[in-house]
């Protein structure tokens, strides 16, 4: 098996596409924003060394970042050593002509529970201060800053673009 050849498949395909098949950045950003705002569950991959973890989590898309309230778990084994994460948000498979997904590469950090950002996100998530204090365990708040995003939407082809688009996100 030639793993290197297989790994290059999408890179080579993208390099061979005419520029007119690349969607304008503003349209890609709008599609990304709308898609992430319309969903609430992602698969988050973390890892370091031999320890890998992929966890389904509820998220909040807020001001261009992904926020995740979590009680903890083995995802923090990887995050303690490696802040780089990958995530996927997608529609259930309904056929090749109806693909809709976003793959994300970014970095994660833990927001201080005493910070204004933490309180703002609690309010945005509908967690009141009394409810927060009544929780049996504290909730950690992860912030995911997007770096690279791949959007795969069959509908892009209807507009004359490639179904797979790449977006480097400005920090």
User: Could you tell me the strand content as a percent range?
Assistant: 35-45%
Mean pLDDT level:
88
By DSSP (H or I, 4+ residues per run), the number of helices equals 6
Shape: globular
Q: Report the oligomer.
A: single chain
The helicity comes to 25-40%
Number of strands: 8
Taking all Cα atoms into account, the compactness measure Rg is 18 Å
Judged by helices, strands and strand pairing, the structural class is: alpha+beta
Order of helices and strands: HHHEEEEHEEHHEE
Low-confidence stretches: none
Q: Main β-sheet, in a few words?
A: 8 strands, antiparallel
- Euclidean distance between termini CA atoms: 38 Å
What do you see in this structure?
With 171 residues, the chain is of the alpha+beta class. It has helices at residues 3-7, 9-16, 25-38, 75-79, 116-125, 129-134; strands at residues 41-48, 51-58, 60-62, 65-70, 84-90, 100-111, 140-153, 164-168. Strands 1, 2, 3, 4, 5, 6, 7 and 8 form an 8-stranded antiparallel β-sheet that branches. Strand 1 (41-48) and strand 2 (51-58) form a beta hairpin. The longest helix is centred in the first third of the chain and has 14 residues, at 25-38. The termini are far apart. The model has no long low-confidence stretch (mean pLDDT 88).
């Amino acid at each position: 098996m030639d793993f290197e050849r297989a790994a290059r498949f999408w890179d080579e395909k993208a390099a061979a596409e005419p520029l007119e098949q690349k969607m304008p950045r503003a349209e890609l950003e709008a599609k990304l924003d709308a898609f992430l705002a319309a969903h609430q569950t992602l698969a988050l991959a973390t890892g370091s060394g031999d320890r890998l973890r992929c966890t389904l989590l509820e998220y909040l898309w807020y001001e261009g970042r992904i926020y995740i309230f979590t009680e903890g778990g083995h995802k923090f084994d990887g995050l303690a050593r490696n802040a780089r994460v990958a995530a996927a948000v997608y529609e259930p498979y309904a056929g090749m002509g109806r693909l809709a997904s976003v793959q994300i590469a970014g970095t994660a950090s833990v927001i201080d529970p005493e910070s204004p950002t933490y309180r703002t996100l609690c309010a945005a998530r509908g967690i009141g201060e009394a409810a927060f204090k009544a929780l049996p365990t504290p909730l950690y708040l992860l912030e995911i800053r997007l770096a690279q995003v791949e959007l795969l939407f069959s509908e892009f082809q209807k507009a004359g673009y490639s179904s797979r688009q790449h977006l480097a996100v400005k920090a």
